[in-house]
Amino acid sequence: MCTLEKRGDLFFLTLTGDGEHRLGPAVIDSILSALSEAAAQSTPGSVLITTSQGKFFSNGFDLAWAQTAGSPAEARERLHGMVASFRPVVAALLSLPMPTIAAVQGHAAASGLLLALSHDYILLRSDRGLLYMPELDIGLPMPDYFSAMGRAKIASSSAMRDIFLQSAKLKGEEA
């Protein structure tokens, strides 16, 4: 899940625990609730900093949960549900009335990368961490708002190609 802590004008949204911070329904709802709370409490000068505990920033949607649905059709339905329920998180981050910073100390993959890209700024450790869009590698289609965010946030067309069409794994220094 996540926590939201306010210290002065700073809001700290932290993905908690030592796991991969997979974005399943409960985590997505928790993040959306925290963003709503931050927006309601914001004042001039507020800033939101999103970070996580452990090795991973977020390793994307909870595909293991989707696959426990019982049948391939139900698994696809769960995956589509996560894709649809994550879109409001992206919209909430983009529309917050304050600057947002993703402090990425570990891996940000798939929807975890999109979570980071949804912020105004991304700070990534140069010595560890990874930005990665693995949809091609695992045979999943790219949701339309993922590619739209990439076009809006990644200025270099060659970097956009490398990330979204070649599943390049960018380490801190490269990113």
From TrEMBL:
One of its GO terms (biological process) is fatty acid beta-oxidation. Its EC number is 5.3.3.8. GO terms for molecular function: delta(3)-delta(2)-enoyl-CoA isomerase activity. Pfam families: ECH_1. Pathway: Lipid metabolism; fatty acid beta-oxidation. GO terms for cellular component: peroxisome. Signal peptide: none annotated. It catalyses: a (3Z)-enoyl-CoA = a 4-saturated (2E)-enoyl-CoA; a (3E)-enoyl-CoA = a 4-saturated (2E)-enoyl-CoA. Keywords: Fatty acid metabolism, Lipid metabolism. The keyword ATP-binding does not apply. CDD domains: crotonase-like (cd06558). InterPro entries: ClpP/crotonase-like_dom_sf, Enoyl-CoA_hydra/iso. It comes from the Eukaryota. Belongs to the enoyl-CoA hydratase/isomerase family. This is Delta(3)-Delta(2)-enoyl-CoA isomerase. It comes from Punica granatum (Pomegranate).
